[in-house]
Write a structure and sequence with these properties.
The chain is mainly β. The protein has a six-stranded mixed beta sheet with strand order 2-10-9-4-5-6, with no helix packed on it. Strand 5 and strand 6 form a beta hairpin.
């Protein structure tokens, strides 16, 4: 069983930045798993924002390319999401996920508003 705990959400003005963190614990060889960040806005389906393989190859949704950066520190069992140039439409609950498992974090709220 793997536990995922997110942190770093909050309220930010349009154009601002936030950095999300997700720490993994439990039985996992973190360095080889694919980790993903997903988000769900009110009334919308959950969508993949970005994912990163164990070796560090990232993939991004078109809506966040050039603004968000996913990274990982395998020594800390942690994955990050740096979010820049935030827009109101980025407002959502962000979850991290160990891809291919049932392990999801509890989510962290990101609100972009003036």
């Amino acid at each position: 069983q793997v536990q995922l705990v997110e942190s770093g959400g909050g309220l930010v003005q349009p154009g601002g930045s936030l950095r999300l963190s997700c720490a993994a614990s439990g039985t996992v060889l973190f360095s080889i798993v694919v980790m993903g960040w997903y988000r769900q806005a009110p009334g919308k389906q959950r969508e993949l924002v970005a994912s990163i393989a164990g070796g560090g190859n990232p993939n991004y949704a078109d809506s966040v390319k050039g603004r968000f950066t996913i990274s990982r520190d395998n020594s800390k069992n942690t994955v990050y999401l740096q979010m820049n140039s935030l827009k109101p439409e980025d407002t959502a609950v962000y979850h991290c996920h160990l891809v291919g498992s049932n392990s999801w974090g509890q989510g962290t709220q990101v609100t972009v508003s003036s």
